[in-house]
Amino acid sequence: MTGAGRGRGRTDRASVAGKVQDGPSQRMRRVAEDIRHRLSAVLARTEFRDPDLIGVHLTVAEVRMSPDLKHATVFVSRLGNVPTDPLLPALKRVGPFLRSAIGQGMRTKFVPNLHFQPDLALDEATRINRLLHSPEVARDLPPAPEPDEA
């Protein structure tokens, strides 16, 4: 009995297609992108009273939603090479304000709880770039072709 216990005879799309769905659903991606845009706008135009956030410019790099759309993990970074970790407690303090600000135009049943994390993608990309340009890797690569003179 496919889809038993799911109500009204609905079946799980992943089981019907014969494959297991990997990653977020289309709805999760759409809601995450909407929240990212809304948070970016609020962070850009709002002057916070929290002393740790005064004059700080943050970038919302990514938002990941939980499957029930009740929790959003927000990955933030600062402009420049400044660590974001000290700002996480301040972002948690202003979280309820941010949640209400983004929820005013959202068309979802719930406004998700916001959980802030530092965005480490740039650090990881820098680390990989350094590894790729290290002498140990360079000796294993074929020599680059010479550019033709025309």
UniProtKB/TrEMBL annotation:
Residues 1-28 are annotated as: Disordered. The keyword Cytoplasm applies. Its main location: cytoplasm. InterPro entries: KH_dom-like_a/b, RbfA, RbfA_dom_sf. GO terms for molecular function: ribosomal small subunit binding. GO terms for biological process: maturation of SSU-rRNA. Transmembrane segments: none annotated. GO terms for cellular component: cytosol. It is found in: Cytoplasm. Keywords: Cytoplasm, Ribosome biogenesis. Belongs to the RbfA family. Monomer. Binds 30S ribosomal subunits, but not 50S ribosomal subunits or 70S ribosomes. One of several proteins that assist in the late maturation steps of the functional core of the 30S ribosomal subunit. Associates with free 30S ribosomal subunits (but not with 30S subunits that are part of 70S ribosomes or polysomes). Required for efficient processing of 16S rRNA. May interact with the 5'-terminal helix region of 16S rRNA. This is Ribosome-binding factor A.
